Amino acid sequence: DVQLVESGGGLVQTGGSLRLSCAGSGFTFDDFAIGWFRQAPGKERERVSCISKRDGSTFYSDSVKGRFTISRDDAKNTVYLQMNSLKSEDTAVYYCNVLNFWGQGTQVTVSS
Predict the structure, then answer these.
(1) Helix, strand, coil distribution of the chain in percent, nearest 5
(2) % of the chain with per-residue pLDDT over 70
(3) What's the pLDDT band for 56 if we cut at 50, 70, 90?
(4) How many helices and strands in the chain, by DSSP H and E?
(5) H or E stretch at 102
(6) Reduced 3-state DSSP string for 9-25
């Protein structure tokens, strides 16, 4: 079974940093692009970032470009999202995605 497990969320002050991790299992990890999405209360889920398989090409939404960095370690079947200069509008549940599979999410709360 495909499993994605996110971790690393928490409460942080404005301007702070967090690193999220997404550990995958049940599939050939390095054969797939992996994405990070987020959903804030009352809002639709939005794509934040993604990283392609093997060559590591990346995408960032305009709202996080220059502040977030996505990376992957295929030896550990893990994708990371380094989040710096966090803002209150980054508060959301962050989800990891591959194909039509989703993790359970990890809560990120940025307080002013």
Answers:
(1) 10, 55, 40
(2) 100
(3) confident
(4) 0, 11
(5) strand 101-102
(6) CEEEECCCCEEEEEEEE
Specify the pairing of strand 58-60 against strand 46-51: antiparallel
Distance, CA of 93 to CA of 16 (rounded, Å): 17
Give the 3-state secondary structure of residue 80. Answer: strand
The one-letter code for the residue type at 80 is Y
Smallest CA-to-CA distance from 77 within 98, 58, 61 is with: 98
Report whether 84 contacts 68 (CB < 8 A): yes
Distance CA 24, CA 44 (A): 24
Taking the C-alpha atoms of residue 32 and residue 25, their distance in angstroms, rounded to an integer, is 12
Amino acid at 44: E
Q: The tokens 């690193």 sit on which residue? A: 19
Amino acid code (one letter) for 98? V
pLDDT band at 49 (very low <50, low <70, confident <90, very high): very high
Task: Give the SS3 label for residue 90.
Answer: helix
Question: For residue 64, what is the DSSP state?
Answer: T
